[in-house]
Amino acid sequence: MVSRLFAVHESRPNVPKGFSLTGPAAPDTTLNLRLALVRGNTVGLIDALYDVSTPSSAHYGQHLTKEEAEAFVAPKQETASAVNAWLNENNLQATALTPTGDWLAVSVSVSQANELFGTNFSVYTHTATGKDTIRTLSYSIPTDLVGHLDLVHPTITFPDPFGTKPVAKSLPQTRASKRADDCLIGGENMTPSCLQSLYGIPTTPATSPSNMLGVTGYVEQWAEYSDLTSFLQQYRPDMNSSTSFTVVSVDNGTNPQNGEAGQEASLDTQYTVGIATDVPVTFITVGGEAATGDELANVFIDTAAYLLNQSAPPQVVTTSYGIDEDTVSQNLAYNLCDMYAQLGARGISMLFASGDGGVSGGYSDPSCTTFLPTFPSGCPYVTSVGGTINIPEQAVNLSAGGFSNYWPTADFQTDAVSSYLATIGDQNSGLYNASGRGYPDVSVYAVNFEVVLEGMSWSLSGTSCSAPTFASIVALLNDRLLAAGKSTLGWLNPLLYSDASSAFNDITEGNNYACSDFTTGFDAATGWDPVTGWGTPDFTSLLTAIGL
Q1: Is 418 part of the annotated catalytic residue set?
Q2: Average pLDDT, stretch 146-169?
């Protein structure tokens, strides 16, 4: 190993809440690392993204080709040469994860990683779950790689030990044979027909064969075809009940049909197929070491890399998973956000559920004393979807929303955020970053969605209900655009914060109080707010807003 001078590259001041140090990691344990190289022209990429995504731009809708987007992110020759020379000197074989080689994968032992990065990888245990993970609180890189090597992961980013699942409750089996004709069955449970009525979603089949909708499947969550058939027979009797989804595998992901259907995967596939009538749906199942749910950051990296490698990825991708922002290193968050920007520039709408913990983050934690934003919702280049309840709709208190600590208020939302902050004055002062990117951007109903799971009817709740529903609406809008010879919507946010904001039903009641035993949080308000965004969609008004 060549001797080099080191510079501290990333560090965190302490062990995250809930974790404790167990001891040093075994020297021969293999670490599967992902390396991010400094990109050649990220500023140019973002400028191009805004140019093709802002309705007032002369280039609106003229999305970049795969090659044009890659030209912005390809590392400079001196960067690639410096990193490759370092890898060769240490007898390491790296695999490119992306076409441009800005992301690499490499496997090393703990002992070698400790020498390569001037650190000490250790085992940390999560007290509540008993799960162990190997991490470090600080690592360094050779000084001659500063400005070339941007990130080493996993290092200081700790896993989410709980993963993300919707809140579930079983329903009487007799319901499985009933047709859902009423909006909110029993005054409580949501169905496709109710969503169609609520938001004016058409039931007519989509017609464009090139239009696609992607659903991500993580943490060993799988979807069974037989459950989808039963769901369509029950809730969309006007559709062909044999309508299904295709499956693509990332990291050897699987989708077994053996009675192990997952709540999240079933919810996401049933409501995309069942709402986006005849839009081809692709279930992207991700396996590997991330499959257990401990490594959601790895899942996000590998999913984005998969999409970037495709010549024609789905134009809408919905993800019902997230991570508390403070558990993700800022470098990792920025690198992932840049991947989403690249996808957006190519005309792909990346949608994420905002989270189910109100202002306490991804899941409810009333012991929190400051508001905790979620990732990727804080990334300005994704569209974050919050949740509502009741008819007429109100904000549901689980709807995660607030302001990022990593990204400033985005250019497209300056006026909307300023207006909201002016209405609340000093309320919650010091509990959140008033200069941060505000989210969610929009909302959809989020409570008691009826789902068929292993032949039984269940009711599921969370913003993981909202995201696939809104994704289905975007996919149906794309179908109309393609039929008219126009481009798909791509990155949505500049459109949503333009005159199109009037195409949403403003939600002015409710809150997402979660911290200090549910006594602090944000209130829904007139206009945009950090609980429901602009509100819930009206399909007919959205057609007008996009010029149809």
Answers
A1: no
A2: 80
pTM over 0.70: yes
Q: What is the DSSP string of 85-120?
A: HHHHHTT---EESSTTSSEEEEEEEHHHHHHHTT--
The answer to the question of whether 479 is labelled as a binding residue is no
Q: Taking Cα atoms as reference points, which of 400, 390, 413 lies closest to residue 440?
A: 400
- Active-site residue, 268 included: yes
How high is the pLDDT of residue 174? 41
Task: Catalogue all structural domains in the chain, each as residue range(s) with its CATH number.
Answer: 6-39+74-153 (no CATH), 167-545 (3.40.50.200)
pLDDT-above-90 percentage for the chain:
85
Q: Exactly one of 264, 324, 338, 393 is catalytic; name it.
A: 264
Known binder of ligand: residue 438?
no
Query: Given 70, 224, 227, 268, which residue is catalytic?
Result: 268
Ligand-binding site membership of 529 (annotated): yes
Catalytic residue check, 230: no
pLDDT at 42: 97
Amino acid letter for position 183: C
Please indicate if the annotation marks 506 as binding a ligand.
yes
Of residues 346 and 3, which shows the higher confidence score?
346
Rg (CA), the chain: 23
CA distance 402 to 332: 21
